[in-house]
Amino acid sequence: MSRRMRTMAALALAASAAGLLGGCAEAVVGGAVAGAAVVHDRRTPGTVIDDQLIELRWLHEYYNDQELKKQTHISATSVNGVVLLTGEAPTEALRARAEAIARRLPKVRRVHNEIRIAAPSSFSQRSSDALITAKVKTALFKVKVKGFDPTRVNVTTSNGTVYLQGLVTRAEADAVVEQVRRVKGVQRVVKVFEYIG
After folding, report:
1. Rounded distance between C-alpha atoms, residue 102 and residue 109, angstroms
2. In the list 7, 39, 57, 156, which could disulfide-bond 163, CB 3.0-4.6 Å?
3. Which of 114, 111, 41, 39 is nearest to 81 (CA)?
4. Which domains, ranges and CATH numbers included, belong to the chain?
């Protein structure tokens, strides 16, 4: 089976998995967009699907926990089985509960808990973070390292801190961090990369 056929199969599976998990239209569309990048991804199509399922399962558990849902603002992002938790929780107990959900999910290899002990961020802070993420993703196209593909870097911004995930070489990671630090509004850069080669 060609890589293109595997990619199409991966997209179909991700879309049906989202439906089975009670996922909303955004999850299906998000999966399709992410699936289109599989061609450039260093992860296998199966690993990309596993990561999407980890995120969907975490979200399902999160929304079923009424206390977490009402008192926190937390996001989970999985890349190659490594889950990054960002956002805010008012207590250490809620922070730990969100991490426990991630740790018990199938195919999770590691969890980075970057949840701050604080009240949930405001809409204006989240909007600012979304703008920073967009600017960082654009800035990644300026990275000058042979063979570097900016779509291989996942960007998450929380309270002005930019978290970078993906399978990259050390040279790529260094160049990416240098570029990201120049983006207006970025207060801190945290590498959650896995290194290859």
Report:
1. 10
2. 156
3. 111
4. 3-117 (no CATH), 123-195 (3.30.300.130)
Cα–Cα distance for residue pair 140/43, rounded to 1 Å = 19
Nearest CA among 117, 123, 196, 130 for reference residue 162: 130
* CB-based contacts of 132, cutoff 8 Å, min separation 6: 157, 160, 162, 183, 185, 186
92-98 — which CB contacts under 8 Å span 24+ positions? 92/117, 94/67, 94/68, 97/65, 97/67, 97/68, 98/62, 98/68, 98/72, 98/74
The per-residue pLDDT for range 110-135, each reduced to its tens digit, is 999 999 999 999 999 999 999 999 99
Rg (CA), the chain: 17
Q: CB-based burial of residue 28 (10 Å sphere; 0-12 exposed, 13-18 middle, 19+ buried)? A: middle
pLDDT digits 0-9 by tens, 127-171: 999 999 999 999 999 999 999 999 999 999 999 999 999 999 999
Entry pTM:
0.82
- Identity of residue 158: S
